[in-house]
């Protein structure tokens, strides 16, 4: 079929990756990569992604790169400052007190209390009709929810610090140096608060969101440990390193396809008309369940009981019955987070071709199937899937942020998007209005549609485009579809 149209947008993802405009058949109605309007004729001569970039790296971008590097280095450093020499203690004794480094480190309490608090506050906001509109109303509307989550996070961090201090006393009885309960509790609480402050600083000054970088660092260190253990076992058993790392390689490859190549994947599957994100229900419905399982485990442990939280979900990995349960969860969570009718309605308000309900339903079914296959092929190793996907997603977000900031310099936030299916139509609407825009944290948020309420997709534009971008998004997001109506269901 002869090519008759091309995408003229200089910020189209296809052009950024390939250095040449995307070409489309004469029957196409919009660019499959960015959703923007098409221009007649074949693509002009190839250009490089750097042609529009300044000859030097903007000072603001260099500063953000420095902040990002220092932040990651601080997380690693704090994670390896241990309060206790655990020596040769059994792994099950100290395994619960590891976060991004050594057991019983200064940040062993981690960000889990704050992430749990955000999840609980989000559930309350879903259950209380008067708060539902705040969930998706942008940064200003969500301010009371953020404050409530941070205060609850401090309370949970104090509770977790007490459990940490008790754990230190318990391990000290094995021969380690005794530490006072109260000083250890303060150190644990202080480490958690320090991580929350670092999260806030990285939000303001890094290349992508603070919590994404925190979890990225922890995931990298976890995968390094897993890789080292796998290679050691392979050496002892006489197998090849590739065979030892096969499950991780498989899930990594699937996640790269689902997150890094969405445009090509959509074209191949005929999903170009729908803004539904991949994976449809997030990286793993199991990860959402683990939030509550882990919280219950902590409470039970403080009461003198305990159970192995991950083993509740992993021992039957590979069983047909468990895969059926997983399929139900994938479809259920996908339906809650990206219900086709809601996706089509929001796309229609923003003038995106994804308003076709039939195409949106097809995208939901195919996306859910791909998500289920990805989790099944990975062997249902819940924590490793989350770690691998997190590393890939944050790396992609960092690269995208660098490229866009390199071209456009300093940027300002104009809208927080908490519905992942709103990202593509919103960017397309801004592109049609002549406003270059970047969705910061897009890939990371696609992994956690609901419980990453602490990590919204932030729409960034040039300072001179701020007013026009705000007006465009306000009109599109509310055109014939008020937020109150869009959150009429329990989840969104």
Give structural notes:
The chain is mainly alpha-helical. It folds into two domains: 3-40, no CATH class; 59-486, Preprotein translocase SecY subunit (Orthogonal Bundle), CATH 1.10.3370. 60% of the residues lie in helices and 5% in strands. It has 20 helices and six strands. It has helices at residues 13-18, 59-79, 91-94, 112-127, 129-135, 139-172, 181-205, 210-237, 241-244, 246-260, 262-269, 285-302, 320-337, 340-349, 357-377, 382-408, 423-432, 442-447, 466-478, 483-486, and strands at 3-6, 23-25, 39-40, 412-417, 437-440, 457-461. The strands form two sheets. It has a three-stranded antiparallel β-sheet with strand order 2-1-3, with no helix packed on it. The longest helix has 34 residues, at 139-172. It is globular.
Largest sheet: 3 strands, antiparallel
Q: Uncertain spans, ≥5 residues at pLDDT below 50?
A: 46-55, 309-317, 480-492
- Annotated CATH topology of the largest domain: Preprotein translocase SecY subunit
The overall average pLDDT, rounded, is 75
Q: What's the helix count?
A: 20
Give a brief description.
The protein has 20 helices and six strands. By secondary structure, it is mainly alpha-helical.
List the helices and strands and how they pair.
Layout: E1 3-6, H1 13-18, E2 23-25, E3 39-40, H2 59-79, H3 91-94, H4 112-127, H5 129-135, H6 139-172, H7 181-205, H8 210-237, H9 241-244, H10 246-260, H11 262-269, H12 285-302, H13 320-337, H14 340-349, H15 357-377, H16 382-408, E4 412-417, H17 423-432, E5 437-440, H18 442-447, E6 457-461, H19 466-478, H20 483-486
Antiparallel strand pairs: 1-2, 1-3, 4-6, 5-6
Helix pairs in contact: 2-7, 2-8, 4-5, 4-6, 6-7, 7-8, 8-16, 10-15, 10-16, 13-15, 14-15
